[in-house]
Amino acid sequence: PTRADINYFGAGPALLPTEVLEDAAKALVNYNDTGLGIAEHSHRSEIATTIINEAKADLASYLDIPDNYEILFMQGGGSGEFSATAYNLVGAWVARKHKELGSEDSSAEKLKSAVKNLKLDYIITGGWSKKAAAEAERLFGSEHVNIVADSRKSNDGKFGTIPEESTWNLSKDAAMVYYCDNETVDGVEFPQFPKSLEPKGDDGPIVVADMSSNILSRKIPIQNFSAIFFGAQKNLGSTGITVVIIKKSLLPQPSVALMKQLGLPIPPRILEYEAIAKSNSLYNTLSIFDVYIAGRVLKKLLQQYPDKVQGQQAVSESKAQLIYSALEAHPSVYKIVPDKTVRSRMNICFRIQGSDAAEQNFLKQAATLGLTGLKGHRDVGGIRASNYNSVSVDGAKKLASFIGTFASQGGN
Ligand code: PLP
Questions:
Q1: How many angstroms is it from 36 CA to the middle of ligand 1?
Q2: What percent of the chain shows pLDDT beyond 90?
Q3: Which atom of ligand 1 is least distant from the CA of 81?
Q4: For residue 355, pLDDT beyond 90
Q5: Do 182 and 344 touch, CB atoms closer than 8 A?
Q6: CA distances (Å), 16 to each of 8, 218, 273, in order?
Q7: What is the strand order of the sheet 334-336 is part of?
Q8: How far lies 120's CA from each of 115, 160, 186, 276, 342, in Å?
């Protein structure tokens, strides 16, 4: 098959726009008539700096990111950020406490006792937030990790809901409250920013979100977040860079000596946001090719949607609606996995009531129509249609239509 024959619903990496790839293929051989390919130019060259700065400016424009935030291009993926967020926000918390308490000798003891109560808060709504919390426990010890809520507790041990905010057990002065805005494996998405995390004056809460699988698909209230991160490979570009959007005031880290005195770990330099920010994301060799691809995708989005991310949001919602409606039309055949109130617009997870064999059959028949990448995550099985930005309205219509046909032919 050719690209044109395929509608791909894989969970990531996702498809990239064909014209971006065609231009990139040329750029890999000879970038802008320089005789060198884009992956061969030095990351310290003016060419690289221009690509980085334009991608930052276009991302800021598309998502309406204010000036008091820094945009970082990193490596290590979403998984690297599970560690980086914990390290850096603990550092920022210590820096803040240190400033509040002053640097007299007597404050050292006070700081030590404050550290005993150090908490990292996690809201667990799926496999990825669960992994992030486990990483924080590994780095800081479970005594410093507070599970604010775990949706499995009120749902028979399964993900698929978001616990009522009134039941959340938030710490008083957490170094951060962490959540995953869209759980890729479980198909659970926060419908909007949680009310109980809204800013209360200058005192936080410090909110960190993993937006790996739904960034660039809806408007987000950036000012409510201390940090947002996402791998490029689903809605932004090619696999290889990770983006962090962080409030500048949270960048400064305490001295290594102070952290050691307090018995707290310091991040490897490569995960330290302050170091990455100071070098404009060039602390070490960055994949400029991936930033170039991300930049091209952003330029395309900005051209396509005069009202920026809100334009994409409307399209994302209508594509998701098409697919969910087709599933809902046949309740005896399909079971949508998550609760209706928290269904993801990006990862549509469902089961076929009949059997595993019926699911296999669904996947096989879909593939013959060029509808591919629909197999659910290996941890949960079932079927998952990932509805990222690169899925066309036409592709969503084709899938919706096949969902209907499969059901009307017996659903097995
Ligand atoms: N967070 C979410 C929501 C994801 O979907 C993924 C990967 O699919 C990750 C984190 C991990 O990202 P990476 O594979 O880039 O480490």
A1: 33
A2: 95
A3: 16
A4: no
A5: yes
A6: 11, 19, 28
A7: 334-336, 347-352, 383-386
A8: 12, 23, 23, 23, 24
Atom of ligand 1 nearest to the CA of 183: 3
Number of domains in the chain: 2
ipTM tops the 0.95 cut: yes
Ligand 1 cavity residues, CB under 6 Å: 12, 77-79, 128, 180, 184, 210, 212-213, 231
Both 79 and 188 in a single domain? yes
- For residues 259 and 87, the answer to whether their CB atoms sit within 8 Å is no
- Whether 202 has a pLDDT exceeding 80, the answer reads no
CATH number of 80's domain: 3.40.640.10
Burial class (CB in 10 A: 0-12, 13-18, 19+), 367: middle
Please name the residue whose Cα sits nearest to atom 2 of ligand 1.
Answer: 212
Q: Give residue 215 CA to ligand 1 midpoint distance, Å.
A: 12
Q: Which two tokens stand for residue 290?
A: 């991936």
Same domain? For 216 and 280 the reply is yes
